[in-house]
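Bug #77: duplicate submission created two jobs. Keeping one. Sequence:
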Amino acid sequence: MTLGERLIQLRAKAGLSQDDLAERLGVSRQSVSKWENNVSVPDLDKLVKLGEVFGVSLDELVRGNVPGPADPIAKAGVTAEELRLHRQRLLGLLLLFASVLLGSRSEGTWGILFAWPLVTCGILCLLCRRPLGLLCAWGAWLTHFVSLGASVVYIFGGTRLDNFLALTLIIPLGFLTVYSLRHPLPISVCWLLLASFLYQYRNIWWLSGEPLGYLDLFRLSALPSGGKFLTLYWLAMSLLVSFYSLRTLVSRRHLGKVQSGS
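Kept job's structure:
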């Protein structure tokens, strides 16, 4: 059995897709595909990370020496993956419970706006096997954005309290953005987050008694400085995600042609 075949077998056993494995290793999906098709070989540091992800020794990964049933390494690998899934499901239940509390304490539209990001992330945690910590962090931020988003809009013209509350949104937004750029989420999730951000941003104006259409949000001259910042942020992220989507599409087509030609 080749190294590529062992990687496919171990990945299938762990219930991971190529995108999931690439995200865990900090590489592109194309790199994982090349390893599994024996087009290239992972570097030593990537082999070590692969062993940690699958819970196998480096000898088993490279040479295929399967340890016996009593081997603690194999047991530790399975236990680690199951423990992660248990924690993720527990997080999903906590998010659903938090959404129920927020929905019950808020009436009408407010309750829906507070609860839906937490409900979405909670259901994903219960149904998906891939790590969803970053997505849950974005969901929590969107929920926080519902209540304090207006402080960001008026950050440069509001009170000191507005400025402080705005910082509790802007600082986490910066950390989440940087981490997401270094560890990109799937394309579909990126577009979902952008749409959710725009939806929440418009509702801030609507609930504050200044109903605006989506096109009105892009009239920068009519918005306060904080509103300009949020709009420009959304536009910049949209351009980055568009480039990311196009690059991924081109890479997949190129890889498909290479594989069909070989």
